[in-house]
Amino acid sequence: MADSLNILVVGATGRTGAEIVSKLYNAGHTVHALVRNTVKAQHLLSPDIHLIEHDLRDYSGYDSIVQGKDIIIYAAGSTSFKSYYFGKNTPKHIDYQSVRQMAMAAENHSVKQFILISSMGVTHPFFFLNVFGRVLSWKLKGEKALRSTHLNYVIIRPGKLVDEGYAPEQCILYQDDKIRNQSISREEVAEITKQCVANPDLLRVTFEVVKDGLQTNEPLSSKFNRLIPDQNRTPYTQVKINA
Questions:
Q1: What is the pLDDT of residues 22-71, one digit of tens each?
Q2: Is the confidence at residue 7, as pLDDT, over 60?
Q3: Are 114 and 103 spatial neighbours (Cβ–Cβ below 8 Å)?
Q4: In terms of pLDDT, which residue wins out, 102 or 86?
Q5: Distance between CA 114 and CA 143 in Å, rounded?
């Protein structure tokens, strides 16, 4: 891949999505932000970001949106409490159907990489987050829909997201989807996403990530090298990607 890429960020005005946009823009990439409201986006994002206003529930526009993009980063999620039960931006629509439709569009247009921000615990149906409209169950369906394509994908499953703290070298990568109490900052998730973009050989992998300040600092690239592609591992075999 070229050093500078055409990257589409879905969910770009969310707290994690905005961090991802900033990291990629500062790394010299051309960033396209898919947003629901361009006025809101203009206040949050750099004026050099290319804004695309679109309702994620309108799947018919996906082909034109992904055309010409090298990488798609899907950071959208159903976060409004009311939407779980009463709204239209439900987990079924945003965390599953939209992921599925966009992945198919990306495959049709030979997108080089699709990075999905999912969540730790998606394989645990009784985890408390599933109380809110089975959000994790729908995220898992979105993951499976992405895996069913021929795309080169990376699925990132962060732990509890917080707004403070930045020490990406202290992040621990796992591939077992156990529930852990550690958190990770949104900026750290953005940095991990940026480094996934910078590692084009990271293909068709899923991993969980949290931060542990007791761990010895180690570059993320070294931890990436120890990840096992999904097709080469038993889904629930514990793997800790750390020194």
A1: 999 999 999 999 999 999 999 999 999 999 999 999 999 999 999 999 99
A2: yes
A3: yes
A4: 102
A5: 11
pLDDT in tens, 110-129: 999 999 999 999 998 888 77
Q: How far apart are CA 64 and CA 122, in angstroms?
A: 31
Taking CA 142 as the corner, what is the angle to CA 242 and CA 138, rounded to the nearest 5 degrees?
A: 100
Residue 94, C-beta contacts closer than 8 angstroms, at least 6 positions apart: 56, 76, 77, 78
Q: Where are the domains of the chain?
A: 6-241
Cα of 206 vs its chain's centroid, Å: 11
Start-to-end C-alpha separation, the chain: 29
Q: List alpha helices for 37-134, DSSP H.
A: 38-44, 62-66, 81-85, 91, 98-108
Q: What is the Cα–Cα distance from 59 to 119, expressed in whole angstroms?
A: 23
Task: Give the contacts of 48 (CB within 8 A, at least 6 positions apart).
Answer: 25
Fold entry, domain 6-241: Rossmann fold (3.40.50)
What is the rounded CA–CA span in Å between residue 8 and residue 221?
23
| Centroid of chain to Cα 56 | 16
